Amino acid sequence: MEIKIVKQILEWNEDVSREVSDLLSEKRVCLVNVMGSPGAGKTSLITDIINRLRNNFRIGVIEGDIAGAIDAETIDKMGIPVVQLQTDGACHIEAMSIQHMLSFFNLDEIDVLFVENIGNLVCPAEFNIGEDFRVAILSVPEGDDKVVKYPLMFATTDALVINKYDMLPHFEFDDARVERDVLDLNGKAKVFRVSTKTGDGAEAFCGWLSEKIAAKINN
Ligand SMILES: Nc1nc2c(ncn2[C@@H]2O[C@H](COP(=O)(O)OP(=O)(O)OP(=O)(O)O)[C@@H](O)[C@H]2O)c(=O)[nH]1
Ligand SMILES: [Mg+2]
Ligand SMILES: [Zn+2]
C-alpha cells in the first residue's frame, strides 16, 4: 500500500507561495513583503509610499498584526483597499493566509499589494508569501548591530530602508557599518536612508520601488 506522506509545514508553505506567485503573475499584480521590528516604521513607510505613488499605481494593502486593526484603519482612511489579517498570536505571516486574503481584493483593479508583515525581525523572513520582492526596515533607535544579530531578514531582502534617519544625531548608530554588514550578507540589497517624518530619502526609495513594480506589471 502506498504510504501517505505529509510534508513539513515550511515545504507546504513553499508550494502555496508558488501558487500565490503564479496567480499574481497572471493578474499582473506585484506583491511586496514589508518586514521589520515592531515600531520600525512599516506603516509610516507604506503610507508615505501611498502618498507618493497613488497616482502612478493602483495600490492595495494587507495589514498583518497579532491583534487589532489600527494599521488597517490608517490605510482605510486614505481610501486604499485594505484587509487586516489578525494572526491571533502567531509571529509571522504564511502564504496560506495571503492566498486566502487575495479573494477580498479585486485583483483586476490592483497593480501592487503591500503586505505589512508582523513586527518581528526573526521568523517572517523564513516564510515566502509569494512576494515579488522584500523590503526590510531597520530604524536608527534599534541599534546598528541588528544586521549581524538577525541575519536572515537582511540576507534575503531586496532593499534595506534605514528609517528614522532624522534621529541619527541622538543615537550611537553607524549607518556605514549597517550598509557594510548588509552588503556582506547580500550583495544585491539596495540600501536607502529615509525619514518618513521629514520625507528625506523617500523619493530615492520610491524611485527604486516604482521601477521594480513597473518591471513586474508591464512584463
Ligand atoms: N522620528 C521618526 N519617527 C518615525 C519615523 N517613522 C516612523 N516614526 C514613528 O515611529 C513610530 C512607529 O511607527 P509605525 O509606522 O507605526 O511602525 P510599525 O513598524 O508599523 O509598527 P508595528 O505595526 O506596531 O510593528 C510612530 O510613532 C511613528 O510616528 C521617522 O522616520 N522618524
Ligand atoms: Mg504598523
Ligand atoms: Zn513566527
Characterize the structure shown:
With 219 residues, the chain is α/β, with parallel strands linked by helices. It has a single domain (9-217), classed as Rossmann fold, CATH 3.40.50. Helix content is 37%, strand content 18%. The protein is built from eight helices and seven strands. It has helices at residues 9-26, 42-53, 70-77, 95-101, 146-149, 151-155, 175-185, 202-217; strands spanning 30-36, 59-65, 82-86, 112-116, 133-139, 159-163, 190-193. Helix 1 packs parallel to helix 4 (95-101) and helix 2 packs across helix 8 (202-217). It starts with 8 loop residues before the first helix and ends with a helix. Zinc ion binds at residues 90-92, 123.
What is this entry, summarized?
The protein has helices at residues 9-26, 42-53, 70-77, 95-101, 146-149, 151-155, 175-185, 202-217, and strands at 30-36, 59-65, 82-86, 112-116, 133-139, 159-163, 190-193.
Question: How would the blueprint of this fold be written?
Answer:
Elements lengths: L8 H18 L3 E7 L5 H12 L5 E7 L4 H8 L4 E5 L8 H7 L10 E5 L16 E7 L6 H4 L1 H5 L3 E5 L11 H11 L4 E4 L8 H16 L2
Parallel strand pairs: 1-4, 1-5, 2-3, 2-4, 5-6, 6-7
The structure holds guanosine-5'-triphosphate (GTP), magnesium ion and zinc ion.
State the secondary-structure class: alpha/beta
Structural shape: globular
Ligand kinds: guanosine-5'-triphosphate, magnesium ion, zinc ion
Give the strand order, joined by hyphens, for the main sheet: 3-2-4-1-5-6-7
Estimated share of beta-strand residues: 15-25%
Q: Radius of gyration from the CA trace?
A: 17 Å
CATH structural fold name: Rossmann fold
Poorly predicted spans: none
- What CATH architecture would you give? 3-Layer(aba) Sandwich
How many domains make up the coordinates? 1
